[in-house]
Amino acid sequence: MAIDLNAAALDRLPEGVAGPDYDRAKLSAGIVHIGVGNFHRAHMAVYLDRLFGTGADHDWAISGAGVRPGDAKMREALEKQDFLTTVVELDPAGLSARVTGAMIEFTEIDAQKLVARMSDPAIRIVSLTVTEGGWFVDARTGGLDTSNPDIRHDAEQPDQPRTAFGMILAALRRRRDAGEAPFTVMSCDNLPENGHVAKQTVVGLAKLADPAFADWVAENVAFPNTMVDCITPATSDRERALVKDRFGITDAAPVVCEPFRQWVLEDNFPQGRPALEKVGAEFVADVAPYELMKLRILNGGHAAIAYPSALLGHHFVHDAMADPRIRAWLEALETREIIPTLEPIEGVDFEAYRRKVEERFSNPEIGDTIPRLCFDGWNRQPKFVLPVIRDALAAGRNVDGLALEVALWCRYCAGTNDAGEAIAPNDDNAEELKTRALAAKDDPSAFLSNETVFGDLGRQPAFADAFARQLASLWNDGVAATLERYARG
């Protein structure tokens, strides 16, 4: 029979399930983390669990927090199991499970209680995983979206905040007024320069209500950049059943994830930090080169395999990676055109990183899907592919493969695969993209003239000509032949 997960069960975990190898009663909170979802519990909480197992830094445990009504459901589930989580690593060589105990509490979903918790001088870091959309970035300007009603509310009523950032500011104000040092604000979201985005949001909100206080925050609060990475699928009844049937634990909110995880942090923590370097995190002076490596090799790699895989009829990412045409195309593009745009990073082997990415994409246990990778090309291409093209053109490099990636996206947007089967719309702008993609069959500029996506890139002859050639090949010769031609060089 499966056992219910709670503190009392730690001394009788099923065989093969590891648990905390430290005394949780001796932990005290040093971090408030807002946004206790799957990624946080697969990533940051696992690093801290491992660190506590070395006997170090037991004053850096996690105090969970949330600001949305939906967070109450997670809090309720975790409270019933004493804030323990079963983490299953989806290793193709064999699944493994560990119960992690780095979180010791979870503040009630109440703004004033969370402000009070963050005001405690024992809390030296406030970290957040709120997703990219949770940072109130204005898509037009890249700055703070001051028109958002919750931002307006927090600016007008700073003592009754609704957003995490309003609550952070209320706690910082209390600490300043009490003569206490401010905590560090650390984003754990997967977006470029996340520390800069965090500062923009927090300081920008403060400016709307109290410019002098905003200046104090800007001068005294640290916002380190971080790079985070670990593929973490959503939890459903399937994952709960896996934990129960395979590992003998009834866990209301287990986490499954790949065995790979990476965390690179700017070493900017004025009030101290846990020694996470002891368990594999990397502290560096500048995170930007690591972010660029990930954005181009991993995220760019996802974009590269997404559209040809869909056009060739693949559904799962691991099945696509088992197709030698997809695998050879990815390796050739990464090696010839993507990696050469990166500046060297001391101690980092880009080829080894590329091979690891290829291995991760090939993991059948993850169950990642091609439709997920294809989703929202309108926004993803400008983030992950088009900057690579710009850098390659500026350096006078060949862009035939990068142009082929864009042509594959265009061919996908036309709405049918190579077998003539319909492709379901997979973008908020699918109608416009389809119209442009079909017109591009005869006039390639119809696709590239979308300046919202391409800016002036479509008017650069070296790219536009390469795109036209590759798109013609896709329509005339088919996806497989075009990929194979590029891979052969």
From TrEMBL:
SUPFAM superfamilies listed in its UniProt record: 6-phosphogluconate dehydrogenase C-terminal domain-like, NAD(P)-binding Rossmann-fold domains
GO MF term set: mannitol 2-dehydrogenase activity
Pfam families from the UniProt entry: Mannitol_dh, Mannitol_dh_C
Broad enzyme group: oxidoreductase
Coiled-coil region: none
Record domain Mannitol dehydrogenase C-terminal: where: 286-475
Enzyme Commission number(s) of this protein: 1.1.1.67
Keyword Oxidoreductase carried by entry: yes
Record field: transmembrane: none
Keywords for this protein: Oxidoreductase
Domain Mannitol dehydrogenase N-terminal, chain residue ranges per copy: 30-278
Name of this chain's protein: Mannitol 2-dehydrogenase
Biological source species: Limimaricola soesokkakensis
Lineage, uppermost ranks: Bacteria, Pseudomonadati, Pseudomonadota, Alphaproteobacteria, Rhodobacterales
